[in-house]
Write a structure and sequence with these properties.
By secondary structure, the chain is an alpha/beta fold. The protein contains 19 helices and ten strands. The structure holds iron/sulfur cluster (SF4).
Length: 416
């Protein structure tokens, strides 16, 4: 490791996230000040127009926890609707060694499975790794209905088995109680899934990881992990515990997307990577993470992401610092999903983190349809904030988010 190149894990030990309660104007001002005092950039700005050389080879593979399986370090997110005749993107990804597709019952308004089903028939089931997930929003899942939903997933995917079945978006540690772990074992014994795990992106990710490391029976976890969490000691300890216990760790939400115009407050500069690639590289630089999922909706994104995965070049110290600065300056626009912090300080059942996540689908993913559907699925009590006192929640939000303004924005955009 040279003085300028470092693994993210080492960097994380020294980095501290500032709780930024600033407006974007403040942020821009601070960014300008920082730019003045920052060392000169290593090369002209790459931005998102970095030239990607023709790709040769395939995406490297890493071991998934203690399963003994090797999976591509970059895998395909399935929240999009795939072409049910011939999906060019899936085929192109497959040629690049990305043979792992992560789908879910609810993705693409229930239509993701259909495209994956056709694709697996075209390339051969045994040549793919397919994981799927089940959850019911607003309804408590029991072991029995997880099993029923797995059957439905397999039917839709037109396959006898999933390589892994996840309990999707779990929030409660109850999901790691013996009856659920027994269900996981039964599913594996039945051959309907080779492995069993869960996904989570709410505020108690660290607790869930810690519990998973203790109880056993969880083969892998898909969880929110990105450059904004450099200084999260609790999460780092939980990741260490999982690694020690042989639990596979799959990163999602690696881009930590915020609106484009806000992200431009820091002009990421690198001679090697654009910002999107750098965010992925920062996750892969942590050798505790086995792979990262990405929702790759066009050839350019797929090619850029695969190129980043294949590149032996690591992020420089300067690039890590730029990401850290970006995290600080744009914090008020990046909800981390720690809903236990804000929602416990608001009377009633307001779902702040969910509403802000749906806002992100609209503002950043360009998927207003899904955003509106999910927002509409919230009950009026979970959605309406008029008359509620949000001041304590705003004051304690670690990201300094003006929850009132962002919820208003969500309402304007999503209740149209
Ligand atoms: S609004 Fe703040 S406290 Fe609430 S979930 Fe988002 S980051 Fe956490």
């Amino acid at each position: 490791m040279t003085s300028d190149k470092m693994h993210r894990r080492d960097f994380m030990k020294n980095a501290t996230l500032l709780g930024a309660g600033m407006t974007i104007v403040d942020a821009a001002r601070l960014a300008a000040q920082e730019e003045e005092s920052a060392p000169p950039p290593p090369a002209p700005a790459a931005g998102s127009t970095t030239e990607i050389p023709p790709l040769a080879g395939t995406v490297p593979r890493r071991k998934l926890g203690s399963t003994g399986e090797e999976i591509p370090m970059l895998y395909m997110g399935g929240s999009q609707k795939f072409d049910t005749k011939y999906d060019k993107l899936l085929h192109r990804a497959f040629k690049l060694g990305i043979n792992y597709i992560d789908t879910a019952e609810m993705y693409a308004q229930g239509q993701s499975h259909a495209g994956v089903a056709v694709f697996q028939q075209q390339v051969g089931r045994k040549n793919l790794w397919i994981t799927t997930k089940a959850a019911l929003t607003g309804t408590k899942m029991t072991p029995e209905n997880y099993k029923t939903h797995l059957d439905k997933c397999l039917e839709e995917l037109q396959t006898d088995y999933a390589d892994m079945f996840f309990m999707h978006m779990i929030q409660s540690e109850d999901n790691l109680e013996p009856d659920f772990l027994k269900m996981g074992e039964e599913i594996k014994k039945s051959g309907k899934a080779k492995y069993f795990g869960f996904s989570c992106h709410h505020g108690n990710v660290a607790q869930l990881l810690q519990k998973a490391a203790k109880v056993g029976g969880i083969d892998a976890i898909q969880f929110r992990f990105n450059f904004r969490q450099y200084g999260d000691t609790e999460l780092n300890n939980a990741i260490d515990a999982c690694k020690k216990a042989g639990v596979g760790l799959l990163a999602m939400k690696t881009q930590s997307s915020i609106p484009n115009d806000i992200e431009k407050v820091v002009e990421f500069q690198s001679k090697n990577f654009n910002l999107f690639q750098a965010k992925l590289k920062s996750v892969w630089a942590d050798d505790r993470i086995d792979a990262a999922v990405s929702g790759m909706t066009n050839v350019q994104v797929l090619t850029e992401n695969a190129a980043a995965a294949m590149s032996p070049v690591q992020l420089t110290m300067n690039e890590f610092h730029q990401l850290n600065r970006l995290a600080r300056l744009t914090a008020p626009y990046a909800c981390l999903g720690c809903n236990h912090i804000c929602e416990s300080r608001i009377a009633g059942k307001l779902k702040v983190a969910d509403a802000l996540r749906y806002l992100m689908y609209h503002e950043c993913y360009g998927d207003p349809e899904t955003a509106r559907l999910l927002y509409a699925a919230l009950t009026p009590e979970e959605r309406d904030f008029d008359g509620l006192d949000l001041s304590e929640a705003i004051n304690t939000c670690p990201q300094g988010i003006r929850i009132d303004k962002r919820l208003r924005r969500a309402k304007e955009l999503l209740l149209a």
